[in-house]
Design a protein that fits this description.
Number of helices: 5
Number of domains: 1
Strand content: under 5%
């Protein structure tokens, strides 16, 4: 049996199955819900990634210049949260391709509302690209740049 420390999601699934075998259906249902919560979190985070990557790729130049940094930060934060979730529950990785395809439509709808125009019905990037911290849509103004390092404290003009 998988340990909870090794793979929380798989532990929920396996433990729920064993609880059902001994007639503890209510406890099993609770663990099933915990496992579904992880899958829902994965989906919500991927939907956010899709929405903001689409905004970066399809917004007008003025809107991109105004909002690209915030959209890029949102994508980066969602990707980091997904990586933490997958580290805690590696068995969720097998769900990523399906969840990617399912949640793209949600992200697309949100981006279409924000941008007020139609967007591609199929994901223009793979699930690997969606999770890759180095991937940004071509033509976008992302990734957000790191703060510039200064040579020293700013001095006031005299």
């Amino acid at each position: 049996m998988t340990s909870r420390e090794h793979d929380e999601h798989q532990w929920f699934v396996e433990t729920a199955s064993r609880l059902r075998e001994i007639g503890m259906d209510e406890a099993a249902e609770y663990l099933d819900e915990m496992g579904r919560a992880d899958q829902l979190e994965l989906g919500n985070r991927l939907s956010t990634v899709h929405e903001h990557l689409l905004k970066l790729a399809h917004a007008g130049e003025h809107e991109r210049r105004r909002a690209a940094r915030g959209w890029g930060v949102t994508v980066s934060n969602a990707r980091a949260a997904i990586q933490r979730l997958l580290k805690r529950s590696p068995s969720l990785r097998r769900h990523v391709p399906t969840v990617h395809a399912e949640t793209y439509a949600d992200g697309r709808r949100a981006a279409e509302i924000a941008l007020a125009h139609q967007l591609p019905t199929d994901p223009p990037w793979t699930h690997e690209q969606a999770l890759d911290h180095e991937f940004w849509p071509s033509g976008s103004l992302a990734p957000p740049s790191a703060p510039r390092k200064s040579a020293g404290p700013r001095q006031r003009p005299r």
